[in-house]
Amino acid sequence: MTDIALFRLPGGRAWIGQGPFESFTEAPAGGGVFYVNDFDLSDPKPWKKPAHLVEVGPESLAQNVGWNGAQPPHIQWAKPATEWFKMAFRRIRREVLARRLEKMVPVLTEQGTITEGDPVRLLERVMSAPANTWGYAWLQGSQGFLGASPELLFRLQGGTVETMALAGTAKPGDQAAFLTDVKEIEEHEIVVRYLSEQLGHLGTVEREPRGLCQTTGLLHFQSHLRVKLEQPAEAAALVKALHPTPAVGCLPREEPWLDRLREYRSQLNVPGFFGAPFGFIEPGDAPTCHMIVAIRGLSWAGSEAKLPSGCGIVGGSAFDHEWRELRLKRESVVTMLGL
Ligand SMILES: C=C(O[C@H]1C=CC=C(C(=O)O)[C@@H]1O)C(=O)O
């Protein structure tokens, strides 16, 4: 099967890119190009231009991708062990209580085995994911990742950058208590403050009041932010300025803490795509660049599948509560993908 990239906007417009892909350090003119990287931004040529790009809808997906008789996958998940995550949780919390660290987002990964079927069929699910999410996929031979993320890293259009803080989580039924939950509000406002500071270097920042975002089985705090650029900015420079936000990284966003986070991620077997920027520049002369945070998805290599979820640890975090939140986030992905 050819290599495939997919990007679907909240409104439903979507593009499929088919390989081979040509890689670039800077986004080539004319758009129609995907941004694919890992959490550490280790690919120096993250802009991927497909040999063939087509705008698709849910009905035209199959004829553009061609399933070749492939069936949706069955995945047998193994229950995740608590030990390593518990250790990371305790160490992070200790640093937070000592006021050396404000927040860090460790990630737990559930491992699975694809017993039959082909993950390519999950593209249909990504296309029909909730309307307030961005669908993404990157399929390379027998490996890849895909999902539907509720989190925008930024949208760059003309001289305006829009972004959002998305952090703080509850079950939809717990809304009344969530709205006044001091720990969840703190977790969220840390991300707002970080984004306001980073964007403040580019122009005057406008922030909308804190609101709610509901996706498959989950409720989050969400705040929209916008800045009119004083000088033109490249998408790649914005990625470097904003990623990783404390919704998936840490604060302070300094190398020693990022190193610590990388250490936890590697101990906990986290796939590189998780929390990384994933983007698409629409084709055209004055194109819009959409850059999202790749969460709420899974990855696979051969028959091995990985399902990661992360949770922000602040001073008020309790292990059992966070462990439940991690499970709810993974269940949300499993439900969304119909697995
Ligand atoms: C890291 C994840 O979610 C982020 C987005 C929304 C809420 C989050 C939270 O409450 O911790 C996370 O920052 C994930 O889904 O694995």
From TrEMBL:
It comes from the Bacteria. Pfam families: Chorismate_bind. InterPro entries: ADC_synthase, Chorismate_C. Transmembrane segments: none annotated. Residues 84-329 form the Chorismate-utilising enzyme C-terminal domain. This is Chorismate-utilising enzyme C-terminal domain-containing protein. It comes from Prosthecobacter algae.
